From TrEMBL:
Superkingdom, taxonomy of origin: Bacteria
Keywords: Membrane, Signal, Transmembrane, Transmembrane helix
Compositional bias of kind Low complexity: 65-74
Residues annotated as transmembrane: 14-36
UniProt keyword Signal, yes or no: yes
Stated name of the protein: YNCE-like beta-propeller domain-containing protein
Matching PANTHER family: DIHYDRO-HEME D1 DEHYDROGENASE, PROTEIN NIRF
The YNCE-like beta-propeller domain, residue ranges: 116-410
Organism: Actinocrinis puniceicyclus
Span list, region Disordered: 44-81
Length: 427
């Protein structure tokens, strides 16, 4: 392992919902908490203090909307009557340091997606199409041609657009999720995967074949900056609690890179063990651990993000690939593509508490959790189908035929104030 530079974190002010009177940007009460995000009402002061918009009520429990009591949908214990938020990267909505996903509770949709119909968008990499599934009927309702080798369908930071990543087509196809209209492709070089900075100022294109991370305008996709990375196959990432840095995996060289979000500078490189194939990256709700799926090591690496060092490893199953947080912030779903299973990792114990086997031949890859938290949707990368899996007991609800090579499907809309990209990382 190399000796990465440590990132000195800026001081973070504790923000109380009952702070001094100030205007609050995009403040909205959801599940008893004051949230901040696109489409909501209110304003925020330069001082960073937050308070509730007129008529708001901050008392309550975000768990009220939770349903069921399975591993992925249990009703969490009450976090108390108020929520203290912290400021992070300038321009980024305040966050809860104890639970980064506090705004992702079941059915707690942002006002920005009010009226948006619910669908599952499946990019078929080998068919150059996107299949659209109605989650109520588990049926494909339409199939739309897009560019060459679509890899992921990615929600924009402001929740208004879905971007189809046409990797070999060197373009992004925009989808209006409200109308279902597929727009004209936007030229973008090698868009294998796509993220957005927590402040919404940049789209972050993982240009895997070019060994680059490209920072672009989040709307026009015009280039802002290019970072050349000293690794091969950069593709998946997640952001620190305060948004000041992100960690990305490099699949083909078995490395991880740490990047400063604001300056776009490389902060460090980790060399995993020989033959490692790191995939998806996901931070724990309390920010204490980062998990990196490794399809060659058959499990997830655990990292300390601030010191940027490996702290442990948990075996989950053959071909560990995608990582998805449950709606109660208690579990991490790990798709094991090599054995056709999903491991349920408990954040509290950092151990696997259940393994769900998908009947028949199955190759679970990328996906997301339904808005109500009861269904985990995953693509069958090499079986040309999509799996709908119960998060209560892991049984297969439906197996839906789609095009060839289905990859990074997107369940939309989902709860959350804004999107960090990929197939839906919402905070």
């Amino acid at each position: 392992m190399t000796s990465p530079r440590n990132l000195k974190r800026p001081s973070r002010r504790l923000i109380s919902i009952f702070g001094a009177a100030s205007a609050v940007t995009a403040g909205v009460i959801v599940g008893g908490y004051a949230l901040f995000g696109p489409g909501a009402t209110g304003s925020t002061s330069a001082a960073g203090s937050a308070h509730v918009p007129p008529g708001g009520n901050v008392s309550g429990d975000v768990s009220r909307a939770a349903a069921g009591n399975g591993p992925g949908n249990a009703v969490p214990s009450s976090p108390g009557p108020t929520l203290a938020l912290r400021s992070g990267l300038p321009g980024m909505p305040p966050y809860d340091p104890s639970d980064l996903y506090f705004a992702d509770r079941p059915n707690q949709l942002s006002a920005a997606v009010a009226g948006v119909p619910s669908y599952v968008y499946v990019p078929n990499s080998e068919s150059n199409t996107v299949s659209v599934i109605d989650p109520a009927t588990y049926k494909v309702v339409r199939t739309v041609p897009v560019g060459q080798q679509p890899q992921h369908v990615v929600p924009s930071w402001d929740l208004q657009t879905l971007w189809v990543n046409n990797d070999l087509g060197n373009s992004l196809t925009p989808i209006n999720p409200r109308t279902g209209v597929f727009g004209s492709p936007v030229p973008v070089s090698d868009p294998y995967n796509l993220y957005f900075t927590p402040d919404g100022k940049s789209a972050v294109v993982m240009a895997e074949a070019l060994h680059e991370i490209a920072f672009r305008d989040p709307h026009t996709m015009a280039v802002q900056d290019i970072l050349r990375v000293p690794c091969s196959g950069v593709n998946h990432a997640d952001f620190s609690p305060d948004g000041t840095y992100f960690i990305a995996s490099c699949e083909y060289s078995g490395q991880l890179v740490k990047v400063d979000t604001a300056t776009h500078k490389l902060l460090g490189v980790i060399e995993l063990r020989s033959g490692a194939r790191p995939q998806d990256v996901k931070i724990a709700p309390d920010g204490s651990v980062w998990y990196v799926a490794d399809m060659q090591a058959n499990g997830v690496w655990m990292l300390d993000g601030d010191s940027f060092r490996v702290t442990g490893f948990v075996r989950t199953g053959l071909g560990a690939h995608g990582l998805y947080v449950s709606r109660d912030s208690r579990s991490l779903f790990v798709s094991n593509r090599g054995e056709g299973s999903v491991a349920v990792l408990d954040f509290a114990t950092r151990s696997v508490k259940a393994v769900w086997r998908i009947p028949g031949r199955a190759t679970p890859d990328m996906g997301g959790v339904s808005a109500d938290g009861t269904v985990l949707w995953l693509t069958g990368r090499y079986t040309a189908d999509v799996y709908a899996i119960s998060t209560v007991d892991g049984h297969l609800i439906a197996r839906i035929p789609v095009g060839k090579g289905p990859h990074g499907l997107c369940v939309y809309p989902q709860p959350g104030r804004y999107s960090l990209g990929h197939t839906g990382i919402f905070r």
